[in-house]
Amino acid sequence: MQTALTQVVLFCRAGFERECAGEMQELAANQGVYGYPQFEPASGYVLFICTEPGGAYKLIHSLPWQQPVFTRQWAACLPTLGAVPKQDRVGWLVQAMADFPQGGEVWVEAPDSEQGGQLQTLCRKLTPPLASALRKAGKLSEKRNLKQPRLYVAWLTEQQVVVGLAKPANAAPWPQGIMRLKFPAGAPSRSTLKLDEAWRFFLSAEEQQSWLQPGMTAVDLGAAPGGWTWQLAHQHFRVTAVDNGPMDEALMESGLVKHRQEDGFTYVPERPVDWMVCDIADKPSRSIDLMARWFEQGWCRFSVFNLKLPMQKRLAAYQQCREVFESRMQAAGLQVEMRWRQLYHDREEITAFVRLLD
Question: Which stretches make up the Ribosomal RNA large subunit methyltransferase M THUMP-like domain (predicted)?
Fold first, then answer.
């Protein structure tokens, strides 16, 4: 069965197919898996065709699912299937998965794109009867079992469907790879969801408990009107919000926030803090220089920051910024851990979490 899975389906943000494809080709080669991508602009997905038997299965097992920056969700799949007959979609899909091992769950989903959005209703309606038919065929366990493979159906277009397998422990736990969050009442801007998602994505439950403790200190660069500051204050941090613009009045009344009307690029903290966060919209080269300086100067231990990517050569811009940051940390004799991702609440940007190691 492993050798029959000849491609990996990758979900990404619509419009970032080229970045998703280019990054995966490099990461796969590092794992000894070779192939080539196929994609359509704005489709929200990429097909990575593996040139050696078993390559797709190896890739989704050997490469940690959190490592690709631009891939949200993935599964190793059979060659792309043609149009599914409308009169018996369930039976047709069960037959397509006849040689699969028994799965512990079944997912049916479409990419997060304009065309994919039109297919989501079909995916939701199809899942219960498909699960029932797969159980009758002995292809799905009676109860959900995350130790077994995830049976996976990706409805790419009305005429293209792929079926495959994913490893639940090495795949996104959210449909489409999207962590959907509720906008918190009282937050001054929707940007607050970016920091909320970053903490939930990058930090385990144990890390959140250890690294997000009440009484910690933080600086928010480019804070106004206070979306990220709200998250910091919600953790009962003592926050310095740095921005020439006005802050949300209700947030300032919390007693946890001090507003410094200064430029985030030139601000110097009076003393080191636990966290520095930054969502300033500027050139990525200028932003990464600022982030590196904070760690070089010993001004913070933890950071979450965004890099606004250019319209062209976005993958190259991210890779260059990462290399610059790594080289400067090495030159400064600092050991850091870095985690990067294009999160769902990001747009033309990616988010990084950096931790200074002891």
Answer: 88-166
Half-sphere exposure of 129 (CA within 13 A, CB side): 11
Q: Are 344 and 194 in contact (CB under 8 A)?
A: no
Placement of tokens 């009107």 in the chain: 225
For 235-261, what is each residue's pLDDT tens digit? 999 999 999 999 999 999 999 999 999
Q: 192: helix, coil or strand? A: helix
Strand 217-221 to 275-278 pairing: parallel
Query: For residue range 83-100, what is the model confidence (pLDDT) as tens digits?
Result: 888 889 999 999 999 999
Residue type, 91: G
The SS3 of residue 68 is: coil
**How big is the CA angle at 97 (ends 134 and 83), to the nearest 5 degrees?**
105
Is 263 annotated as contributing to ligand binding?
Answer: yes
- How many residues make up the chain in this entry? 358
226 is in an annotated binding site: yes
Query: CB–CB of 60/167 below 8 Å?
Result: yes
Position 47: which residue type? L
| Contact criterion met (CB below 8 Å) for 345 and 304 | no
Dihedral of alpha carbons 174, 80, 12, 201, sign: positive
To the question of whether residue 104 is assigned a binding role by annotation, the answer is no
- Per DSSP, what are the bridge partners of residue 165? 76, 151
Q: Is 313 a catalytic residue?
A: no
- Model confidence, pTM: 0.95
- Give the count of alpha carbons within 13 A of 147, CB side only: 1
What's the pLDDT tens digit per position in 102-116?
999 999 999 999 999
